[in-house]
Amino acid sequence: MMLRFLPLLAGSLLLGSGLPVQALDCGRAASLMENTVCDVPELSWLDRVFSNAFNDEVLRDPPGVTQRVTAWAATRDACRSAACLRGVYLTGISQLHQSPQTFDWEGQWWNTSATAGNGGRINIKHPAKWQYRMDVEAWGGSHRYDFTSSLDFYGSLALSYNPVWGGDCGLILIPLPDGRLKVSSDQHGKCDVLLPGIMAFDGIYMKAQADPRPQATLQSLGILPDKATDERFRQLVGSDYAHYLATATRFVYGDDQDNLGATVVTMWYEGMANRRAAIVMYTPDGNIWAMRVEPGGKQGVSVHYATTAQDKQALPETLKAWRARFADR
User: Fewer CB within 10 Å of terminal CB in the chain, N or C?
Assistant: First the structure.
């Protein structure tokens, strides 16, 4: 589909350069149009949404995009109201994504961009001829947030500004040519205060009856380096493998305090880091030490330990130090 015009974000117009543009720098806004975009939160949000999309498109087709920018800039500069700028941005976002004019909105949509232990789902219903409603939820570890909202349509896009219950978080739903949905939330506005940790509504959504994402593994998450190590770990911990996987909603590298040349990864369940956490330590020669804690026991947590080392009783200093964090819980 040919694009009749494409929006370009104000402030960084690099015509002919083929370089990605950045969102409007409101600290340097000079023109009436630029100040209007910066002064209206919705326009600032749409400016960022388009900036991300434009950067993707300009990498794919630099000559084509830059040729169409000039025509769009004239349309944008002719606006004399926030309503006009809103229309120009929304139309451009839709055309830049080549959003289909007809789209099957109803059904359950799952956030396929969310990382393991995190997720999102949007259930869109069409209860009346001119009415669409959606139930939105996002989760990360022990955190969960949801709200219900009506949908307003602008061309091929759907927008949510009027939650019926659960907060005031704006979403824009962008249909893609392959039948998926791209969702962007007003992350710099009211959505930020609603979502703790690394939860997000943003992402690419796919329609399905159940979560279509493939089952994660410790290897796919990057906690274990290869399939062989992952399989060795499975054999070591048995059914506990599922608990380690469920715990790993957040994970970081740790320090090898034993100087064994080991890789150390600590992980925790978002929102319960002081009660549900784990540590995995492995060396190039195949030794593995693993420990996890979960709620229970006399001290508030129960400890599970496994190792491939011959001495099953002696803890490496690395694991001793990590275990001490939970001694008084």
Answer: N
Residue 6, SS3? coil
According to the model, what pLDDT value does residue 301 have?
Answer: 85
What's the N-to-C CA distance of the chain in angstroms? 61
142 by Cβ neighbours in 10 Å (0-12 / 13-18 / 19+) ranks as middle
H-helix segments, the chain: 32-39, 41-60, 62-77, 82-96, 227-237, 241-247, 317-324
How far apart CA 219 and CA 186 sit, in angstroms, is 33
pLDDT at residue 211 in the model: 94
Match 């950067």 to its residue by tokens: 55
pTM of the full structure? 0.80
As beta bridge partners, residue 136 has 122, 147
Question: Which string of DSSP letters, residue by residue, matches 41-62?
Answer: HHHHHHHHHHHHHHHHHHHH-H
Angle 107-113-117 (CA atoms, 0-180°, nearest 5)?
A: 95
Average pLDDT over residues 56-80: 76
Extract long-range pairs of 160-167: CB within 8 Å, 24+ residues apart. 160/134, 160/136, 164/133, 167/194
Q: Among 212, 211, 217, which Cα is nearest to 230's? A: 217
Return d(Cα 214, Cα 114) in angstroms, integer.
Answer: 12
Q: CA angle at residue 229 from 223 to 233, to 5 degrees?
A: 85
Q: What is the mean pLDDT of residues 249-264?
A: 96
Copy the structure tokens of residue 187: 């992350």
Contacts of 74 (CB under 8 A, 6+ apart): none
Ramachandran area for residue 147 (φ above 0: left; ψ -120 to 50: alpha; else beta) = beta
Determine the angle formed by the axes of helices 32-39 and 82-96, rounding to 10 degrees: 80
Domain ranges of the chain: 26-96, 107-207, 227-324
